[in-house]
Amino acid sequence: MSEYQRICLVHYHKIGLKGHNRASFEQRLLNNIAYILKDRPIESIRRISGRVCIHFSEGISFEDSCSIAEAIKGVPGVARISCGYVCDRTMEDIDDASVQAAHDVAPFNTFKVAARRNHTDFPVHSMQMNCIVGDVLSEAFPDATVRMKDPDAIVHVEVIEGAAYVYARTERGVGGLPVGTGGRVMCLLSSGIDSPVATWRLARRGAECIGIHFSGRPQTASTSEYLVDDIAHVLERTGCIARIYVVPFGDYQRKIAGAVPPQLRIIIYRRLMFRVAQRLARDEKSKALATGESLGQVASQTLDNIAATDDAVSMPVLRPLIGMDKLEIIDNAQQVGTFEISSQDAPDCCTLFMPRAPETHARIGRVHAAEASLPLDEWVEGIAAGAIVHDYRCASYMSRKHPHATSSNDSQ
Ligand code: ATP
Ligand code: MG
């Protein structure tokens, strides 16, 4: 039996996709996957019949093909992936390739064949193919029996255009929409557990995510900046982060701490963080901010405090974790791969100049009064000018020229 060329078919949900929308969605998904697979042994990647089809290089090992499939699974927009073989559209080749595909999922007790053809120019119709391939598999796997309902293995045969695609291995992908189809969001990114998950969830809905990290520098060490960079490298593997602005914030916290009532410090730090984020978001043509807050998770994440921070900016502030429990967020962080990094302790601006009894129900009038004497506009400009930019691999974002294109981190 000959070794057929290995392929991987990427399926996505077609709900709500029509006409032009669908073509640009497919193209975006294809570009995002192609970007992630840039240095991998891939011969081609193209759209066929509502899927993205990846042809692996000749002679690629089973293990390498699995590791590539693993990488693709995490890319937003991928609903399912199927790994198998492409062969000529002759029944002889289809039979052989089906046995090979079934070996990839062996051992199994029950199986069925699911064949379909895209064009009636292929003379054998689907039911006939099911029977022919079923017989061949019964001979090759004499201990296995055919079962229509919930079989252990399903061998798919798809005759599409000039070739036949045969596969039995199918796995779920991360779902969602391709990054770059949902606009751009400026995400407030600490090195904690929550905000990387919030960022990932927005990327999974198609947003191009730009992070902004406020470090306690020069009042603290830069540990949190390294952790945020490590987190970004994890998010980058699936194209979920485009860029991060690192903003030294410690001196401004010191100034605030010396000028406002202690219980209002945190609110006022946060209002300044939001203003700086909005200022940089406008440069980035991003239309929303995002945080990792979850209602009532810590004393400061109350509705009053959320209202008091949102009052500082005019952009919508998205909070994708607002209704999630901490344990759900931790599970999600483990799935994304950021949990271990986020569990390391690092002083960031949050640990600096903290009051003993922070306000949990800030009254907006008092906040405005406390801020009245601060040169906020000047600070926002100064802080934004001091931001350091790190770029990451995000296909849709990289394809456009940007005024700050001085990448300080050409990761890999
Ligand atoms: P996280 O786990 O994301 O650090 P948290 O549970 O520590 O969140 P807070 O400290 O109240 O909660 O922060 C709430 C949100 O504010 C964070 O999810 C993040 O979006 C933003 N934020 C907090 N600290 C920083 C920081 N140093 N830089 C950027 N954003 C921050
Ligand atoms: Mg935190």
What are the salient characteristics of this protein?
single chain; 412 residues; alpha/beta; VC0802-like; 2 domains; eight-stranded mixed beta sheet; six-stranded mixed beta sheet; 39% helix; binds adenosine-5'-triphosphate
Task: Give structural notes.
There is one protein chain. The chain has 412 residues and is of the alpha/beta class. The protein folds into 2 domains: 5-172, VC0802-like (2-Layer Sandwich); 184-411, HUPs (Rossmann fold), CATH 3.40.50. Helices cover 39% and strands 22% of the residues. The protein contains 14 helices and 14 strands. The chain has helices at 19-36, 62-73, 91-105, 126-140, 194-204, 223-236, 250-259, 265-283, 303-310, 326-336, 339-342, 364-371, 376-385, 395-398, and strands at 5-11, 42-48, 51-56, 78-87, 110-117, 145-146, 153-160, 163-175, 184-188, 208-215, 243-248, 288-290, 317-318, 388-391. The strands form 2 sheets. It has an 8-stranded mixed β-sheet with strand order 2-3-1-4-8-7-5-6. β2 and β3 form a beta hairpin. α3 (91-105) crosses α4. The longest helix is centred in the middle third of the chain and has 19 residues, at 265-283. It is elongated. It starts with a strand and ends in a 14-residue tail after the last helix. Residues 405-412 have low confidence and may be disordered. The structure holds adenosine-5'-triphosphate and magnesium ion. The site of adenosine-5'-triphosphate has 20 residues, from α5 and β10.
